[in-house]
Amino acid sequence: MIEKINLIASNFQIDGNLIKIEENNQGNINKTYILYYKNKDVLKKYLLQKINSNVFNEPHLVMKNIELVTNHIKEKLQDLNDTYHKTLNIIKTRDNKNLYTYINEDLEKEYYRVFDFIENCISYDSLKDSNNPEELAYQAGKGFGFFQKLLNDFPSNLLTETIKDFHNTKKRFNDLILSIENNITNRAFTCSKEIVDLISKIKEASLIIDSLGKTIPIRVTHNDTKLNNILFDKDSLIATCIIDLDTVMPGSLLFDLGDGIRSACSNSFEDETDPTKIFLDLDLTKAYLKGFLEETKDILTNEEINLLGLSVKILTYELAIRFLTDYINGDTYFKIKYQEHNFDRFKNQYLLFKDIEIKLEEINEFIKKLLII
Ligand code: GN1
Ligand code: MG
Questions:
Q1: Alpha-carbon distances, residue 209 vs 7, 42, 213, 325 (angstroms)
Q2: Which of 32, 114, 119, 276 has the CB geometry, 3.0–4.6 Å to 24, for a possible disulfide?
Q3: 56 CA closest ligand 1 atom index
Q4: What's the Cα-to-Cα distance from 90 to each of 36, 49, 52, 66, 113, rounded to whole Å?
Q5: Which 3-state string (H, E, C) describes 28-92?
Q6: Contact yes or no for 304/253 (Cβ under 8 A)
Q7: Distance from Cα 223 to the centre of ligand 1, integer Å
Q8: 122-372 maps to which CATH number?
Q9: Which region, left, alpha or beta, applies to residue 120 given φ > 0 means left and ψ of -120 to 50 means alpha?
């Protein structure tokens, strides 16, 4: 393995000797390694990632999207004289490409890319791991809000939809129905009560996707706004850099807000199985909303404002049905650590969805207050 990583890394424009390779096990999709290089006594770290080409069928287009978006962010930060925020910096291959293709022993293509490692930052899997969860929730909201703001004037039609229908909740629902009809693993009838409930809510869950490109503007969105996709400055806790840009595509700002709160402000991890621990933390949600809206309030349209609260419920619904679909299909998409992992994740997101249903009115009231409407 070490030999292989060494060989792959040698194809990138990095000076010095590779002295250490560390595996990083975060993330459900790609494989990540931290590379330590020593060059004339200076130690420098890089991030090497193998792109999961089952999920991203066209890795070259993923990289093209990332290059366009990060270049735009760099220019914007320069215009604003902002030396504080950062974006990913792609290290090119020796033949000046942003992706290296490796042919493995089974003659399959593997795709690798390298980024500069961003120093003095910390990422969190849970807000509760910090000393001040509310402050961090506020900074997280600000971080993704600022990202939206920087990309507000970027023409979204320059980007390719690298995973088609990624947040098309209706399409995700149809995939669930298909998986139930096919029932290849005989797992479809393990939770019929929940499925009946989800079917009855599909109309409401389609509200964003039905309006996208009509009353809801298509913007450049991150589409995977999990808390651990933010790098916070270790000292100030300001969200300095948004990472994991693979899913940057045309989409709705509501996807980013909804998924951000779903992931950061849930009281538990996505695979917690104790129902008493699975709920949306309202204080964290309010702090997140405050940060996000501080950055975005001037770019939001009225139609977006009307769906801000609901987006949290819709994105949770969507991930619940994605986990369930993958479970019924035999775990072909999300990496699992044990047999029933996707089923536990489904039940977790479903319970979170039910809790958001109860809290939605209070969330909407709070949004109104923040925007004084
Ligand atoms: C995947 O790999 P990671 O953890 O950043 C998934 C997201 C889900 C998330 C749920 C490309 O993201 O959409 O919300 O798992 N990314 C992709 O944990 O499908
Ligand atoms: Mg990630």
A1: 44, 50, 9, 19
A2: 32
A3: 11
A4: 16, 11, 18, 9, 8
A5: CCCEEEEEEEEECCEEEEEEEEEECCCCCCCHHHHHHHHHHHHHHHHHHHHHCCCCCCECCCEEC
A6: yes
A7: 9
A8: 3.90.1200.10
A9: left
Neighbours of 365 (CB within 10 A): 11
C-alpha to C-alpha distance for 129 and 323, rounded to whole angstroms:
25
Q: Which of 25, 126, 224 to mutate to test the pocket of ligand 1 (most atoms within 8 A of CB)?
A: 224
Q: What is the pTM of this model?
A: 0.94
Identical fold, 2-119 and 122-372: no
179 lines ligand 1 (CB under 6 A): no
* Amino acid identity for residue 47 in this structure: L
Domain boundaries, the chain: 2-119, 122-372
* CATH code of the domain made up of 2-119: 3.30.200.20
Task: Give residues with Cβ within 8 angstroms of 241, minimum separation 6.
Answer: 85, 86, 87, 88, 118, 121, 230, 231
d(CA 201, CA 205): 6
Both structure tokens of 289: 């909303």
- Residues bordering ligand 2, an ion, CB closer than 5 Å: 27, 229, 244
Residue indicated by tokens 């000393």: 131
CA distance 134 to 41: 41
pLDDT tens, residue order, the chain (373 aa): 788 999 999 999 999 999 999 998 777 778 899 999 999 999 999 999 999 998 999 999 999 999 999 999 999 999 999 999 999 999 999 999 999 999 999 999 999 999 999 999 999 999 999 999 999 999 999 999 999 999 999 999 999 999 999 999 999 999 999 999 999 999 998 889 999 999 999 999 999 999 999 999 999 999 999 999 999 999 999 999 999 999 999 999 999 999 999 999 999 999 999 999 999 999 999 999 999 999 999 999 999 999 999 999 999 999 999 999 999 999 999 999 999 999 999 999 999 999 999 999 999 999 999 998 5
